[in-house]
Amino acid sequence: MNLSFAKREQCLQFFRFCLIGLVNTSVSYINYYLFIRIGIGMAVSYALAYLVGMISSLLFNASWTFAVRRIHWNMTVKFVLANLLVAACGEWLLRPVVYQLHIPVQYAQLFTLIPTTVLNFMLSRFWVFRVRAMA
């Protein structure tokens, strides 16, 4: 298979994006578990753990995946908006998975991972971390 440099770079970016996602999911879960263990309520623990995961995702994807040298305020706003959109799409996709495909609720999110990961990557690559060339 002979991939052009641009295609290889895009594949490498997607791999890095997914790897960071796996690490962030693990970090978020560990934080959630620790917050619960110290007596913080479930909803607050989830929100705090999710926030920690989003911050690490922003930092690592900017620097490692997309080679952004400096994170600007507008990137951060776009990042938050993109994550809210992806979360909303994931929640929207859950309904047919559960109610039409009759997948048990505890496994339904697994069926949303591929489309939401691709959407998140595309938003990140072409909108959030898009760096315009100097004129």
TrEMBL record:
One of its GO terms (biological process) is polysaccharide biosynthetic process. GO terms for cellular component: plasma membrane. Its main location: membrane. Pfam families: GtrA_DPMS_TM. The keyword Membrane applies. It is a multi-pass membrane protein. Residues 16-129 form the GtrA/DPMS transmembrane domain. The chain crosses the membrane at residues 12-35, 47-68, 75-94, 106-128. InterPro entries: GtrA_CellWall_Glycosyl, GtrA_DPMS_TM. Keywords: Membrane, Transmembrane, Transmembrane helix. Belongs to the GtrA family. This is Membrane protein. It comes from Collibacillus ludicampi.
